[in-house]
Amino acid sequence: MDRSRVIRTLLVGGPMYDRLYDRLPSFERMTGYRVEVVARLPHPELNARVARDFSRGRPDIDLLSTHTKYAPSQARWLLPLDGLVTGADRADLNPRVLELATIDSRLMQMPRNIDLRLMYYRRDLFESSTFQRRYQRAFRKPLDVPETWDDLIDTATILTTKAHAGFLFPGRDSGLFGTFYELLVGAGGELFNPDLTPAFDSPAGIWAVDRLVELHRRREVTPAILPLWHYDDISAEYRRGHAAMTTDWPGSHYLYMGTSTSKVAGQTSVALLPVGITGKRAAYAGCHSFAIARQARNKRGALALLQFLTSAESQKAEAVLGAIPARMSAVRAVRRAVRDHPFEARRWSMLAETMATALIIPPRFASYPACEDAIWRSVQKALIGRLSPSRAVTAAARAVTAAVRRGRKGKR
């Protein structure tokens, strides 16, 4: 086939993302283009593939999945979209999302959806008279959905049995980093100082790691294998009925609610994330997006596909599954559609409240991915007992300082 009619893509893959790609045959029929998916990978592997292939020269990729936190490290390989995306499309984006998609005053990516977590929990376990009695005896108050992270640890301890863990969180990669970051900010801490020196080597940072260690090693409310598990592993384990509580992104919501994808769909409910010791709720957030490769051989086709995948119709299709659209028109449409469905209407209200009051977004700079990587690896070492919480945050701070320094030298 003529290469000008082929669009070669690198896409993020996994249950949260793959349903959108079911729309690709429709795009091909409408346009006459053929979409060639070179690879569909989890984000850590996708980022490594992009860095490896693009740094070597011409990767022969037209369109790629990226993320507002990762795009600054990839910006030299991306095509600015300012003259390609219409004013109407830009105006339809949530203003904060548009800001995140912009690097050095240039629009470098088109947002797909907004990511922030809610808590999923087993309603039947919370309503169990057995667990209610145990909790009442232990803590002299009724068992309820935890409001604070310390409450969550106590609740998870009571709900842990041989059949199910009390609480699951990702034990590696950005999922572990994100949970640490939420705890850190909830304890009054910050990730970076204004000059990008690490601010998390602090009492708040130590407390955040200590809470994760409490869950995994001291209270043993999570399985020993947890440090090997990423988002999808955690989600699958909960949906098998092997956990009482977890947190997850909106794109996975349909998996929790579907009887074909969850053994506990009928018993699952949602809640806001717990607050930290300061009373502050923090939700790690960002935006998935698509970008056109600067050296794309088929820029026209890549632009057509980018517009299709981030259109209002595509975003509404993902929103039906649970994702938060980046387009305000799509958000309005889905919220109108769920007004007569109390459970879904309440979930969307929680998402809106979290967006309005609790979003935490790390600073965007080219060496950020290396910093995130350094932090989760040190926190993971605390989980498995190789470092104390205080030494974990100190080790992470040293690694982050070195990563920022390397990034600055690379820009000279």
State the gist of this model.
With 412 residues, this protein is α/β, with parallel strands linked by helices. The protein is 47% helix and 14% strand.
Describe the protein's architecture and organization.
- This protein has 412 residues and is an alpha/beta fold.
- It folds into 2 domains: 3-114 and 286-347, D-Maltodextrin-Binding Protein, domain 2, CATH 3.40.190.10; 118-284 and 365-411, 3-Layer(aba) Sandwich (D-Maltodextrin-Binding Protein, domain 2), CATH 3.40.190.
- The protein contains 18 helices and 13 strands.
- The chain has helices spanning 24-31, 43-55, 71-74, 87-92, 95-100, 123-126, 129-139, 149-159, 173-186, 203-218, 231-239, 253-257, 299-309, 312-321, 328-337, 342-357, 368-383, 389-411, and strands at 6-12, 34-41, 63-67, 102-103, 106-107, 110-115, 118-122, 245-248, 268-271, 283-284, 286-292, 324-325, 359-360.
- It has a 6-stranded mixed sheet. Strands 8-7-9 form a 3-stranded antiparallel sheet. A two-stranded antiparallel ribbon has the order 4-5.
- Helix 1 (24-31) links the parallel strand 1 and strand 2.
- The two termini are 43 Å apart.
- The mean pLDDT is 96.
Q: Identify the CATH homologous superfamily of the largest domain.
A: Periplasmic binding protein-like II
Strand tally is 13
State the share of residues found in helices, binned by percent. 40-55%
Oligomer: single chain
